[in-house]
Amino acid sequence: xxxGVFVSDAKPNTLVEIERQVVSLxxxxxxxxxxxxxxxxxxxLLFVSAxxxxxxxxxxxxxxxxxxxxxxxxxxxxxGAIREVEGPDVRRxxxxxxxxxxxxxxxxxxxxxxPHMESGKDRLKALDAEVVKEKDESKRAFxxxxxxxxxxxxxxxxxxxxxxxxxxxx
Length: 170
Fold this sequence. Notes:
The chain is mostly helical.
């Protein structure tokens, strides 16, 4: 890889308009998944950057704390959304975004959705136990119907998630 080939009109510590817009797009997008805005900002900048960036570059350019960047990088590495690469300074660790949708979705499903679904089974059992305790028969019937609905949703999600991963080539 050759660094310095891409020439930006921006000062090294600022974002150009396209970078600002991509960062904003990803920051808004991660909210849907309930993730911190900083995770979207970090991925967005790595996605749109022609050169790999170090943690300090992300801190300065995004104007977010080193702790937020560190946590965000760790989370994104776990998902497989970014990878460490060589950069111009061998003493620093550089990152670039992985732009394969299948890896992003697959990582999110593996790291976020599946554990949540697994804990959902236990929570449904606990809900069943609470339904049985309800003295009012009409309320008990209502709660029972709702817990069964949640169980159906969980089963449907378990069927759909592998299909999504297959469609994306994971």
